[in-house]
Design goal:
Oligomer: single chain
Strand order of the largest sheet: 3-9-4-5-6-7-8
Strand content: 15-25%
Structural class: alpha+beta
Helix content: 25-40%
CATH class of the largest domain: Alpha Beta
Largest sheet: 7 strands, antiparallel
């Protein structure tokens, strides 16, 4: 059964090309769209062979991630007060940001923040050419050598430059960035801007709720 709200949200999200759109604009579009527009979008979704449930999941992932960016959620201070490390129940660092967007839960249903190492327990590794909005590019190193960003869209046909959403320690808040993917001598990939502090390889991962 098709979910019209999910279809509309996906079309808007995937047409962002890196430009910020707040959740209210998406909701207003859904509410005011004519039946003719809805039929056209549903037809396009069917032609593309997209799954409505995965569609809805991706749209919600991006809207949650963007909510932190709109708010400029500060990067955790990680001092002696643990209350300064979290925002709305999720750890305010790179992997906590992805955990929030993916709505990860623990065994009792509580909010759970994975690390760059453990995010793979909630994801499937995919080739870089299959990246879609809401997937992540993850350096799985531990000991503060890892980093993960959310993929939003490619900026060039060569698929080497892309828009990302992330909780960034350098900016000290959640931000939208433009980053460069670079081939390493060993055949892996790294994010050029972060390689000095979080050396590759990075891998592409999709959340289990959005995988085929």
């Amino acid at each position: 059964m098709r979910t019209i709200e999910a279809v509309l949200a996906l079309v808007i999200v995937l047409s962002l090309s890196g430009c910020s759109v707040v959740q209210k604009q998406i909701q207003d579009f859904q509410k005011n769209a004519s039946p003719e527009i809805i039929d056209q979008i549903n037809g396009w979704i069917e032609d593309q062979g997209l799954d409505p449930e995965a569609t809805k999941a991706r749209a919600e992932i991006l809207m949650r991630a963007e909510s932190w960016i709109v708010l400029g959620v500060p990067y955790g201070s990680f001092d002696d007060n643990p209350l300064n490390d979290y925002f709305d129940g999720y750890r305010a660092d790179c992997s906590g940001f992805i955990s929030m967007a993916w709505q990860l839960k623990n065994s009792t249903g509580g909010k759970f923040s994975a690390t760059t190492v453990s995010l793979g327990n909630y994801a499937t590794e995919i080739p870089f050419e299959e990246l879609l909005s809401g997937d992540v590019i993850n350096n799985q190193r531990g000991d503060k050598k890892g980093h993960v960003v959310m993929f939003v869209s490619w900026l060039n046909d060569d698929q080497t430059r892309f828009v990302a959403f992330e909780e960034n320690g350098g900016y000290r808040k959640a931000v939208q960035t433009e980053l460069n993917l670079e081939l390493m001598p060993n055949g892996g990939y790294t994010i050029k801007e972060y390689d000095p502090n979080a050396p590759g390889p990075y891998i592409a991962q999709t959340h289990l709720t959005t995988s085929e």
